[in-house]
Amino acid sequence: MADKGEDILKEDKDLNETESEAAEDVTKGTDADKASDDKNESVKEENTDSEDTPEQDGTEEEGEDPHKKGKWKKNDKKLDALKAKNEELEDRVKRQMAEFENFRKRTEKEKSVMFEMGAKSVIEKLLPVVDNFERGLASASEEDRSDPVYEGMNLIYKQLVDELDKLGVKPIEALGVEFNPEYHNAVMQEETDEFEEGIICKELQKGYTYRDSVVRHSMVAVAK
Fold first, then answer.
1. Of the candidates 154, 162, 163, 151, which has an alpha carbon nearest to the alpha carbon of residue 133?
2. 81-167: CATH topology
3. What is the DSSP letter of 218?
4. What is the pLDDT tens value at each position of the chain, 224 positions in all?
5. Which residues, in sequence order, are CB contacts of 67 under 8 Å at separation 6+?
6. pTM for the complete prediction?
7. Over the Cα atoms of the chain, what is R_g?
8. Does domain 170-224 have CATH number 2.30.22.10?
9. Residue 173 DSSP one-character state
10. Where are the domains positioned within the chain?
């Protein structure tokens, strides 16, 4: 009888343990389902956040960080300022180059004018020497022209005239041409049947030009 009671107590104990284990399994299953649901909800939120996040394509989207937007505007202002400064410097360089080119041309022109003035001054001093050679050779008689001294003077005269011609010194045409005050200096008038009125009938002193500018006017007599 005692053994039978012990068996009944043992069966009750086993039954209680089985119920307790079943309750724990149910609790674990509920917790697992809840964890699974929480995980699925987290995945959904991540997907939603991923879909709502705009792609970084370099364009400005709504909801952008105002600090970043302000930084871009600041950089744009700096870029505009640098462009304006660059344009100002380029304009200044162009102006300076133009001024330098004008200065170079002006200097070359002044140098050329000074050279022309110096050359004319030297030529003016040589022309009387040429005049004296011509007077001396013209005054020689036929007998003197066969003299070696005359021949030597004539060679020196020709050499001097040739060198002046190479430099651009040319005699002004006068005898038999119409009087031109730009090249001729009339000192007298003569009556003559050989030339018409206004034509140069006598050359008293030869005139010369240097590179198309008059160094000395011809001294002439004009027919009337």
1. 154
2. Hemagglutinin Ectodomain; Chain B (3.90.20)
3. E
4. 444 445 545 555 555 555 555 445 545 545 545 455 555 555 445 444 444 444 444 444 455 565 666 667 777 788 888 888 898 999 999 999 999 999 899 988 888 888 888 888 899 999 999 999 999 999 888 888 888 999 999 999 999 999 999 989 999 999 999 999 999 999 999 988 889 999 999 999 999 999 888 999 999 999 98
5. none
6. 0.53
7. 60
8. yes
9. P
10. 81-167, 170-224
Could you tell me the two tokens for 169?
């010194």
With tokens 């005269």, the residue in question is: 157
Q: For residue 29, what are its two tokens? A: 């299953």
Tokens of residue 177, six digits: 């041409």
Which residue type does 66 have? P
